[in-house]
Amino acid sequence: MQPQDRINIRQFKKVFILYNRYSGKQLFASMMSRINEVYKLLKQELDATIELLDVQYFEQMPELAKRAAEERCDWVIIAGGDGTIRAFVEDMLQQNYRPYISIFPAGTVNLIAKEMSLRNEPARWVHRTLKGCLYPFYPARANGNLFLTVASVGFDSLVVDGVGALQKRLLNKFAYVLQSTQLVRRELVFSNWRYAFRVRFDDEETWHTGSSVIVGKSRYYAGRYTLFQDAALSSPYLHAAVFPGNKRADILKYASLIALEGLDLDKDILRRKAKKVEIESVNLVEDFPVELDGDVVASTPLTLEIMAEPLWFIP
Question: Under a CB-based contact definition with an 8 Å cutoff, are residues 163 and 289 in contact?
Fold first, then answer.
């Protein structure tokens, strides 16, 4: 991405650093020391009030967003994963207030940080951020819920739905591997994939049927794979992949294509760009779980739409 403008960060008067201590690998690594180093470096560089705020539960986010709005915070630095970012931005938008936002990658999944090529080395991060480069970030809504990077309905969302908060905290990405294995044993050993969905784009008359659907704002998926080459956080479009097959061999093939970053190798996989995507379950489960940015916070029927006004990120 290319910056569209710059902001003089040294003019900021109020800065919040939100640190989710339970996001990602903090139980096994000294991430807190890195956050403290960022705090100290910014204190040295800026003539501003800087507060380091500890986030222990997502239920704290509404109050933190309210504080940011009431105190007219110029800049919010979120140290966590995509789920932490989504939770805060959601509540911030409810306050009708839009400070500048930066991300210090410290989560289980950091697709936003990955697309912006962010590292969690404090001195390098502060040096880059103080340049004040501005990037537009077009979020989307999914049944009214904020959606920043990736949404899925089908196999992936059922995996995420089966991973509890404690498993995610203790096992990190390995929790998803375990749940994927269990889901394959439960759903695919003795039968084909039982679920199906229909999808349409931008209010077209035609609906398309698939066994799973992935919708991306970011080009990255699952933290490391490039799924949508043309997708970008700064682009006001959604990119969707509809997977048609429901046999065990199909599911395994799709997983392999994702790992190989080669969805274009299977011409039966429908890929579309749109500003609006609608997804409905057509059998068995009407309210099928929907994964948004690594958490299940919605269900089918689902409507995803790009928001007209971007957020502004400082990487």
Answer: no
Per-residue pLDDT at 130: 95
CATH of the domain at 103: 3.40.50.10330
How confident is the model over 91-121, as pLDDT tens digits?
A: 999 999 999 999 998 766 677 888 888 888 9
What span, in angstroms and rounded, lies between the C-alpha atoms of 186 and 306?
35
Q: Are 106 and 177 in a shared domain?
A: no
Closest CA to 193 of 175, 170, 210, 174: 210
Higher pLDDT among residues 286 and 305, named by residue: 305
Whether the Cβ atoms of residue 210 and residue 242 lie closer than 8 Å to each other:
yes
Write out the two tokens for 212. 């799973």
Q: Which pLDDT score, from 0 to 100, does residue 5 have?
A: 87
Read out DSSP for 74-132? SEEEEEE-HHHHHHHHHHHHHTT---EEEEEE-SS--HHHHHTT----HHHHHHHHTT-
